[in-house]
Predict the structure of MFS transporter.
Amino acid sequence: MTEQRSGIAGGSSGAAFATVTTLFFAWGFITSLIDPLVAAMKGIFDLSNLQAQLSASAFFIAYGVMSFPAAALLARRKSVPTVIIALATVLAGCLIMLVAANLARYGIVLLGLFVTASGITILQVAANPLAAALGTPERAHFRLTFSQAFNSLGTFLGPIIGAHLFLKGVEVKAGTVVTDAVRDGALAGIDRAFFWIAGLIALLILFFYASRKLVAAAAPPAPAGSATRGVTAAFSEAITSRWALLGGAAIFLYVGAEVAIGTQMALFLNSDAVWGQSDAAFGVPILGWFMGGDGVAGVSLQEAAKAVAFYWGGAMVGRLIGSALLARFDAGKLMAVFASVACAMCLYVFSVGGVSAGFIALSIGLFNSIMFPVIFTLTLERSTASEEATSGFLCFAIVGGAAIPPLAGAVSDATSNITAFIVPAVCYALLAAFAVAATRAVIHRRGEDAPVSPH
């Protein structure tokens, strides 16, 4: 039976991996819509930076609520049914967003984001270990990083489309007023965006259902007895592993830093202390073309929000480069270098500011690139807990995206968007320390009694 199963997997794992990778693109696109949405909510509902960041908190808090239920669901229902349930939940969240846009209620927006993120949480719990497992163990870092590159393609397109739909005419600087016509136009844009997303998610459900046998045949078998584990058991198992806890802390810090930068990037670039009164960005060929000029001096909020795509696009390029680098260099050492550079860039923005800080801030995405997949696979290799429990705990830790952005928002309200970069700088410094520690830790091979040393 084992030999027959291995033969099936060997013949279909490549196609199954390609099918699973489409899911990474979908959740990347939806997640990156949060960046222009935060700026739009600030203008539409006249919110403070802290209040606007609740949009990000409502989205990412779902990871704290749903990750362990998702892990229990994965253990009971296996990968393919779990993915379909996840996509159906995302679809429900999109429909709630349609209601929120038509009723113009911020509270319903927060509910819709929470439900949408709940589905994405379930999707990540199922898809991350699945992508890592569809092939040889030696190539797990490469496969997950390669899938994350397609996730980054979605995150690159999301801010451009979101800025075009959500932010036409919306401004948030002191003294500006959002008229009823502009407000209605922004809400109509949100309605259109989530209407089309709902349709695409419905098509993705049908596509994945049609591919269910292909993926199920290539997926590795579940560990014996995994179906009997519940939420409490999964959490209890995860916290018995020191490396599951360390990996969870690293994911918390990484996602918190990444989201804090991304959700405030448009407001940061639009500020007069950065690009608000400068046309320098329009002189950069590709960047200027994507931003599009409105003929008014300086960078408007909509133009700044389009530039945010390059923050996420840097992650896409970095993951493609990182896939090649990870095939040749130690993952922990490479991550330590990337985290240290990201920390230095945040400190530059914090201490220098000005027009150059805008370009430096956008470039941080390039060094964010490999962090999530490398933290994930480094932790799976070193954790003594099961993959289901460890994956659930790591996705639970994505709740850092709900905790750290409001902290950065509060710093922005008290000081400025520039000084708020000290928050992610601290996160990246701690991530560099995690990566160094991982290079010195033992690796636990699944199915083997004794751990082996890292290589």
Notes: DSSP finds 19 helices and no strands in the chain. The two ends are 33 Å apart (CA to CA). Residues 2-439 form a domain with the Growth Hormone; Chain: A; fold (CATH 1.20.1250.20).
